[in-house]
Amino acid sequence: MTPIFFKYLEFFPFVSIMFSIFFGTFFTVFKRSSIFMFLNTLLSILFNIFYFYFFNNKLCNINNFFFHFDKLSIFFSLLILFSGLVIVLFSYFCLCEKNIYISEYYLLLLLLMLGSLSLNFAKHIFIFFISVEIITLSTVGLIYFFNKSKTAIEASLKYMIFSSFVSLFILFGIGLIYFINGNLEYIHLFSNLQKYDFYEKISIFLGITMLLMGIFFKISLFPFHFIFPDVYQVSDPIYLMCFSIINKISFLSFLTYFFLCSSILQIKFFYILIYIMSVLSIFFGNFLAIFQKNLKRLLGYLSISQSGYSIIVILSLLNKFTYFLENIFLYFINYVICNICFFGSMAIIKRCNFYIKKNNIFSNIYNSYFLLSLSMFIVLFSLSGVPPTIGFINKLYIFSYSICNHFWIMSLVILISNILGMYIYFKILISICNDNKINNNLCKYDFYYIKDILGIIIFVMSICLIFFNFSFFYNFFFKILFSGFSLK
Amino acid sequence: MLPLLIFIPFFGGIISFLLQKISNKLPKFIAMFSILLIFLLNIFMFVHITFPKLDLFCINFFSNKFCFTWMEDIGIHFSLYEDIFSSYMIFLTTLLGLLSIIFSYYEIYKNPGTFYLNVLILISSTIGSFLSTNLIFFFCFLEIIIFTICFLNIFWGSKDIDTSIKFSCIKKFFLQSQISSLVMLFSILLLFNYYHSIYGVWTFDFNLLKHAFINKSVIENIILFGFLLSFIIKIPSIPFHTWLPDVMLFSPRGNFVDLIGFLSKVGIYGLLRFFIPISGNIFYKIQYFMILLGIINVFYGTFMASIKNNLKHALAYINISHVGIILLSMFNFNNLSYEGLFLYIISSTISSSLLFILSSKLYNNFNTYNFKSFGGLWKIFNTIPGFFLFFALSNFGLPGTGNFISEILIFIGFFLSHQKISIFFAFSLMLFAFCYIKLFHRIFYGSLKNNLKCCDLSFVETLFVSLLILFLIFIGLFPNFIFNNFNFFDICFN
Question: What is the ipTM of this complex?
């Protein structure tokens, strides 16, 4: 080990991903091969996972101007890397027959990983803005990648135009903050709020509101949710895995660090604003999902409500009762596993059956793929919060958080929207069980064993959801990774 | 010992699921065997509780308490406790399970292993809800019951009826039961938080939470209202009864008709175990309202049962009227009526479930529940009409059966406390008689409309039914066998 390696320890994950991007680009010029690009991406992700595994204790001591490394953000980055690993596996096995530029797909995926990792560790708003732009760039490319129809162009264009608007807003907000404060680290945003006069206070509030607006657009909270059902309707299930996990979790981890460091929630205006938006997005996401006929569009609406729940989970970190701390780990583990399993099984079914109609993708899978449908049941239970799964414990935590702090209206809204959500998930479950004879004579696939490999991955992950307790995960993930894990 | 009661049927279900590929008949035998095993274990437990001086085995094996720490910082423990009341209820559930498995011996199901997995999970979660004192685990078991009922109805429900109507009915059942369970979860969490605000301890243990109510504040009323609403939907009482007839109609072919019995028994148990001990002052406030609800239930149920053209619908509405009597005796502060209630739960469950089973035997012959295709069956069948007559009469309150004794006790207890209402209520007996006579007449008398080949009860089934008849008569003749040792009034109010 050279001393230079330890000196620039914090840059290695980003450097490794950038290196594999450059290497892949040069190789693609000479020859297109999907296996090479697959191995390239897989190796860079595996390198990062091992890197965080071995150096997490040393990373936590680093004081950098641009990046922070604490145990919560390392947890989030491990989630992102794990989901990236699964996505790469799925995309290699399920996409290899389609005539698309597969090497470009892997490059865009790597770019997305780079952006989300740097957003995850960002300490300075400058890094934040750059990584948001990188994520947006790769997202716009990926939406249009699989589906070349007019609606896909429309959706990706919509997404691009709105996100460019939003990035303009963010830039304006950053300018306002910098104009008043003169410092762009999160910690120093409200450090000397008492010194400012009225107009300076108003302008700094405006700047932060604009910044938050941009982030809320990216994670599809209520007033900015309108594009996301379109995006979900158009895109491929494998890409939906990326879109619902990597994009969202990177922004949520940013929000967690932002809320914890800058004392933004001490100010009542922002607290109530974030609070109302999350509750409204829970309600409207579930309420609008009832009327949907298309399954993917319905999932888009459900993702809105899920992001609302996750905001409430982040808010509960600042609570006076300490037992809510473990909720954040359970919630995000549950979220990642559920989304991987759901969209993964969708991708397998779509690959195996070429003639499926759009609306009833799942119909009659109970007879043809028994193991897959079993894991689907578990995932739907866990998403809706039925007892023998982790989702129930998450629901319990969210409810008890709202009750313990006497948020009566919020708890009522969550109660109603939870009943609606239960109904929707049960409708999906019934469509899985539906026994019409449309898709019976299908199942043409070349690689018979591939279905089994990916299916077993999904099945094992879904069995993890039938849980025992937090300490089960604690023993298996945290105690191995971090000794004596605690937040503060 | 106590976790065995839950885990034996659960693992039996998993074994039967795994053995599905070897043979179609094995799952059935495993299910039967595991239920028989719990039946015997529970009887040992019952003997241990009633006669603690009779040390047949060492006491540690039969200890009626069990606790396993699960999530310590919130106070969720897997804690089980069995007393006389819960052991009665477990006896009932195992009896129902035995009935349903014996009488479905000749039925052919599509995936028998998965089917029996569902049934055994249903039974084990019902037993778990009777045993658990921790409110979160009670809630969990209730939720599992609902989902298994949904699955059984979706996959193995009767196929002669249109699937879209079936799915809409199951959705209705699911929505109502979800509303009830979420309201219950909310009131549990309110109680949890309320206890913490007074004593500073996070716990879900009901033996502690029982003592939380001191101040008579608004929150207490909200908590109690939530419990009451959720249990009333589960029983089901009148404004929320609409799911019962439909789900009864779509329940799996064969004799798995007591599926709903499991849920409604848990509802009654929950009201007696969790609502009444903490209700205190509010019990007297809502007493007249609940009695009114019970009377409406009785009259409405019998009225609808005599109108309906469908046999299953009619029997379901009769079940609703039974719920009315149970509510009446439950909200009557009297020792006699509580003794009657305990007997009534046992005897009415046995008799009405046998009625359901015999009606589904009729369905196997005619492929319909409609009264128009029945008629004059007394001529074809040997055993079914006689059994049907006996159970209909015992349901109506034939002297000599358990129903008669329990109804008499309920009426006397009701008369002692509310004299004017009880005179009005006595008219319901007439309606009961009218309803049963009309039902029986439409099925078994008159002219024969169909000349079908008929399959009667087999030898084992006949034997089992006659054993149950003997049991009902035994309860009716020697009710002191149950009453002597215990004061049921104390079990509920302490």
Answer: 0.88
